[in-house]
Amino acid sequence: MTTLFLATTGGHLEQLDDLAARIPETGRRLWVTHANEQSRSLLADREVEFVPYVRVRNAPDVLRCVPTAHRIWRRYGVTRAVSTGSGIALGYLPYLASRGVECHYVESVARVAGPSLTGRILSHVPMIHRYTQHTQWCDPRWRFAGSVFDSYRAVTPSHADRPTGPVLRVVVSVGTAAEFPFTRLVRALVPILSPGGELARHTGRTVQVLWQTGCTPVDDPAIASVPFLPALELATALRSAHLVITHAGAGSVLGALAAGRHPILAVRRSRDGEAGDDHQTQLAAELAQRGVATVLEPEEITAAQLMATLDRGVHRPGIPPAFELAS
């Protein structure tokens, strides 16, 4: 058996990486995604086919996937496919299902209230098993088999975990979305996090900031930004950070929680051209309810609120349960 793991880069790939580790291994594993710093580093030790990027809600890009899906199916003898989306799933799963491949689509954990456009379209395609990561909308058409947030719990860090030295380390991440800049968050944070800014004055410490800005243009000399970071490098920075500020994207949140951090989440707004819809609002509310994140508008973030999160952390005890695929 050859299992194809298929996802676009960013949060979809982060989720698939988490879930794939919980799916029992049965034969060869092949990963199909787009090439960038995240995917190259995350999948460095695995068998990968890098394919052209599928833009958001772009039907021609989806159709152009089909010849590649055919080539990969024949070359690798694909017998099972698992995808967390987004648009790339539309280009592969229906074709593979038509060839008798056992297909599974796991909706993004960011979809708290119902399926995405990709999920709604795939719900009309026969022979594709579909999964939600939220029990509140599972039904006969959408099975619940688990969530990437399984087992994460809010904890109070010990005093030994709190920063006492002269340096305060901060990670700011706006994710890897290619189409949607988040200028509002960056502009709000510059006066707080820049050298001699509000946080430095509030704490009397030197503030070191890693700015991962994606496609968001940055022209402020106070910011030494990096558009994209390799996955392992970002994970290392998150583990050593005292404070994490990120957009409410599933992948960025998952990275912060895996590092044991209680992030401050800033929600993207579709009306400002920051996202295709407002699903981040629902995800942020869900995480706040679980007690594993704090949600603030970019304009509401202050040094005092940042420091308040030092009394909060996240822990994932034990091994998450297996993600059981339907037969």
From TrEMBL:
Q: Tell me if Transferase is a UniProt keyword of this record.
A: yes
InterPro entries recorded: Glyco_trans_28_C
**Which part of the chain is the Glycosyl transferase family 28 C-terminal domain?**
221-315
Domain of life assignment: Bacteria
Gene Ontology molecular function: any one: transferase activity
Keyword Nucleotide-binding tagged: no
**Keywords for this protein:** Transferase
What name goes with this protein? UDP-N-acetylglucosamine transferase subunit ALG13
Which lineage ranks, top first, belong to the organism behind this chain? Bacteria, Bacillati, Actinomycetota, Actinomycetes, Pseudonocardiales
